[in-house]
Write a structure and sequence with these properties.
By secondary structure, the protein is an alpha/beta fold. The chain has helices spanning 25-35, 54-69, 81-90, 102-109, and strands spanning 2-8, 11-17, 41-48, 73-77, 97-99. A five-stranded mixed β-sheet has the order 1-2-3-4-5, with helices on both faces.
Length: 110
């Protein structure tokens, strides 16, 4: 599991690679919440995520709630078809804007 974060203006871009499961979800959550201390616009690049467990879904929902409480927005980039299907079946997909590229994601945040 690797997490890289960078600021692009007012946007926090987080690139996550590896499986997000019960073991790694708390790490992703704590790192992204720490990086989001002052911001309210988050782009999570998930092109490197092959598996997202229910713990990963809960972590994404928590991030969404934290950002939404600040009147912000979360965009997920490069979500695999399998993860997209799971998010769709559980209703989680309704909370997020999905994009195919970082450029499209940053446009959606603007």
């Amino acid at each position: 599991m690797t997490i890289e974060t960078k600021l692009d203006g007012a946007n926090l871009i987080a690139t996550v690679s590896g499986d997000i499961d019960g073991k790694s979800a708390p790490q992703v959550q704590s790192e992204l919440l720490a990086a989001l201390q002052t911001g309210n616009r988050l782009l999570v690049d998930m092109r490197g995520v092959g598996y997202l467990s229910s713990a990963g879904l809960r972590m994404l929902l928590l991030l969404y709630r934290q950002v939404a409480a600040r009147k912000g927005k979360v965009v997920l980039v490069g979500v695999s078809e399998e993860i997209r299907d799971t998010m769709s079946m559980t209703g989680f997909i309704n909370f997020f804007t999905l994009a195919d590229s970082q450029e499209a994601g940053l446009s959606a945040l603007a």
